[in-house]
Amino acid sequence: MDMLQRLARFLDRPLFPWKRLIVGFSVGQYLFEGFLSLRQYRILQQKKPPKVLESEISQDVFDKSQAYGRAKAKFGFVSGLYGQAQNLGFIYYDVLPKLWALTGVWVTRWIPAAYTGEIVHTLIFFFTFNIITTILNLPTSYYSTFVLEEKFGFNKQTVKLWVTDMIKGQALMVVFGAPLLSAFLAIVQKTGNGFFYYLWLFGVGVQVFMITIYPIAILPLFNKLTPLEKGPLKDGVEGLAKRLEFPLKELHVIDGSKRSAHSNAYFYGLPWKKHIVIYDTLIEKSETQEVVAVLAHELGHWSLSHTTKLFGIGQFHMFYLFALFSVFINNKSLYQDFGFYKEFPIIIGFILFSDALAPMDTVVKLLMNILSRKFEFQADEFAVKLGYSTELAKSLIKLQIQNLSTMDADWLYASYHFSHPILPERLGALGWVSNEKLSKDEDSEKPVKAADREL
User: Fold this and answer.
1) Which pTM value belongs to this model?
2) How far apart are CA 311 and CA 309, in angstroms?
């Protein structure tokens, strides 16, 4: 505590150029990530697949994968520049203090005096700011879904469904965001300089709550879960769970094809009650034993305590973030450099603190990706020891083909961006050798795009 307070006094220096420093961090990160993207773009211009994939990937599939990668890279350049322009515009035109003042006028004019205060003001500010940023990001979101993904056959959404999902997301933001943000502010207000201990405990409780409530109240708003029908796949998955003493409670199929050609399988739940979810597209495009092999990999993460370790790291990360926030929360020089001279709102302090922490976040991201790739190799090895080496390799190759995923990557780009090893690295670790191509030259197979967490 004393060390944090001394650090807080040291950093609260009149006329310290916080705005220029944070702008420098933002521009520096943008330029660094742009440099990495240029390195990767050169890889995406290659004409032949990596040697380990020459026997698996046809030239036609490789060309389509490279074209898809280049299209995403170009979109990334443009959307990144657009996001950077937004960020700099917000800073240079003092959007935060002006929006805080405007929402303060609304509170004074429309909210009864008995209900006014920083918490109510913050809620109105937060939701207004969220609506503004959502509107500003509509063009890139629309282009990504209905132009880029549509062009390569991945998008399954209609505009109506896209809009409906957006409205549902905003509604959930209000329903869950309002009480959580109110509690966050109340804890900081009432617990003094040691507020970060209580914020951390609150954060842990929220995570456990969300693990419990997400499949019950949130997931059904967007997707339909149905019990996996009896048959070889169900028998295989249940047999695998029993073999590993995995506390399987329910086994579901999710209608991922409703929105896109996403394909994945995952588990969730409390330590004593787990649920496995398999995408309908994965079942459609894979053999039964290949799906079981995918789940052997996923349950490998559980058996090897990867999920527990990552949860523990996440709690440490959250604790040190809140502890560092206590250093900045009363930093008047930071507030004043961004146009807050009379009021020092907690939410504004947290936003500015997050911007100031950007370089450290970059290092944390790099280290977490290194650890994640190590865990992925270990989960693959776990599936191999269970006897699924061939099935897992075939499944990975099929998903790579169906997804038009990147076949190769610049080492520096991959180290910074990828939480999973690229396919050639995984096949090499699996010791995979094959003489038959699993890809096809034409469009006899529709693409299956992997979900956010790939296998």
Assistant:
1) 0.87
2) 5
Residue partners of 116: CB distance under 8 A and separation at least 6: 107, 108
Copy the structure tokens of residue 253: 């199929």
What residues are annotated to the active site?
298, 380
CA gap 359, 365 in Å, rounded? 10
Sheet holding 265-270, edge to edge: 225-227, 248-254, 273-279, 265-270
CA distance 144 to 254: 23
- Of 103, 167, 28, 52, nearest to 429 by C-alpha is 52
pLDDT tens digits for range 85-144: 999 999 999 999 999 999 999 999 999 988 889 999 999 999 999 999 999 999 999 999
pLDDT at site 448: 43
Q: CA nearest 437: which of 53, 145, 113?
A: 53
Going by C-alpha positions, the residue among 279, 273, 212 that lies closest to residue 248 is 273
